[in-house]
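hey
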């Protein structure tokens, strides 16, 4: 690890080393001593560097089983830039095989603010890698340990401040819509995080569901804090990995409802490339739309994102001059203020209405509808848009 990382309170590598035997910690970047790792080159062992470079191989059970020799896993710790330098420049690592974690399941805890949406803390990366190299039981034990550490860290930091579109929510608003032996689908309220992030101490969806069913659950995809609706959770890290790949391959269908400024029946598709995260290179992005109805200047749309870029619906709507109501990042302040003052509406006008996927437990196709929360339902009643809502959007 880089010497600047060693004393940071958010550095997670020392925590992992405290939990694991047979490890070595090497400090890089000090002027008085140049780090040399050539001693790791041992023909009796396989040495891998866990870093997602272009020549990296996916770390899979098949790769592990292809050679009976034991494995030395080198994990660069630090920022993305520091990690890249460690993997490329250190003597002894230049020719070592790189491997990467295939799953793009998001970070479960977010102990440090990470610009890449699927970036992991070092502890998480080690736990997931050992889940493949050793066993899923090892991974789960490490992740449960880390969860307790993160919870204590965030508790010590105190509460975070919420933006205008991040109203708080209570545990009673979290409802389980579907569950089987492999997965759960939960209706998340607006204002609640799916999992922990830096500086937060309020309950999260994962924590509430874990306490309710008495077992650990794992996030499969992201849903913005300000967005309400259907969230898919897995009952094991292996299933989360499989379903995460299903999202990437378009095997899981997502249906949203969006309240926006503007109503154009000809608006059917947006395909402008978007960055996968807020700082990365643009990637192909595709969103389908259907206008359901309108009230004066405002339209209600069904939305089907076909790719999974961060803030995809919000950014594509903005590009089409149809900003979402309540969106403080990409929307229009005058319309947000109007809905707050006139309708008492203080959240993002986006709801994940439905998910359709194949259950890993049964192999059967599952389709789940997440009914609208009270605030959205009452708003659509005021606007006269209830009759235009899809079947199942209003429960009771």
């Amino acid at each position: 690890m880089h010497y600047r990382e060693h004393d940071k309170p958010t550095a997670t590598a020392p925590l992992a080393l405290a939990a694991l035997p047979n490890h070595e910690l090497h400090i890089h970047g000090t002027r008085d001593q140049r780090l040399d790792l050539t001693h790791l080159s041992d023909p009796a062992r396989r040495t891998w560097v866990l870093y997602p470079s272009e020549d990296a191989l996916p770390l899979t059970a098949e790769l592990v089983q292809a050679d009976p020799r034991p494995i030395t896993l080198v994990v660069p710790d630090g920022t993305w830039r520091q990690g890249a330098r460690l993997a490329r420049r250190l003597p002894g690592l230049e020719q070592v095989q790189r491997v990467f974690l295939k799953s793009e399941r998001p970070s479960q805890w977010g102990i440090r603010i990470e610009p890449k949406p699927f970036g992991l803390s070092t502890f998480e990366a080690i736990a997931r890698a050992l889940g493949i190299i050793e066993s899923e039981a090892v991974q789960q034990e490490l992740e449960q340990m880390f969860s307790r550490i993160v919870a204590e860290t965030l508790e010590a930091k105190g509460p975070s401040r919420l933006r205008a579109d991040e109203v708080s929510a209570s545990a009673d608003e979290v409802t389980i819509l579907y569950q089987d032996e492999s997965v759960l689908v939960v209706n998340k309220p607006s204002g609640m995080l799916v999992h922990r992030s830096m500086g937060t101490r309020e309950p999260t969806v994962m924590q509430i569901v874990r306490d309710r069913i008495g077992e650990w659950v794992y996030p499969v995809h992201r849903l913005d804090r300000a967005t309400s609706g259907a969230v898919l959770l897995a009952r094991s890290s292996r299933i989360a990995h499989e379903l995460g790949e299903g999202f990437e391959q378009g095997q899981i269908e997502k249906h949203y409802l969006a309240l926006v400024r503007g109503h154009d029946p000809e608006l059917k598709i947006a395909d402008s490339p978007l960055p996968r995260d807020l700082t990365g290179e643009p990637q192909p992005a595709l969103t389908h739309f259907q206008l359901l109805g309108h009230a004066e200047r405002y339209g209600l749309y069904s939305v089907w994102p076909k790719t999974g870029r961060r803030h995809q619906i919000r950014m594509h709507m903005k590009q089409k001059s149809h900003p979402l109501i309540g969106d403080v990042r990409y929307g229009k302040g005058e319309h947000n203020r109007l809905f707050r003052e006139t309708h008492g509406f203080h959240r993002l006008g986006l709801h994940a209405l439905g998910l359709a996927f194949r259950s890993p437990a049964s192999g059967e196709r599952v389709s789940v509808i997440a009914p609208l929360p009270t605030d959205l339902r009452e708003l659509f009643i005021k606007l006269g848009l209830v009759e235009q809502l899809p079947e199942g959007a209003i429960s009771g």
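Residues 158 and 201 are 7 Å apart (CA to CA). Residues 3-157 form one domain.
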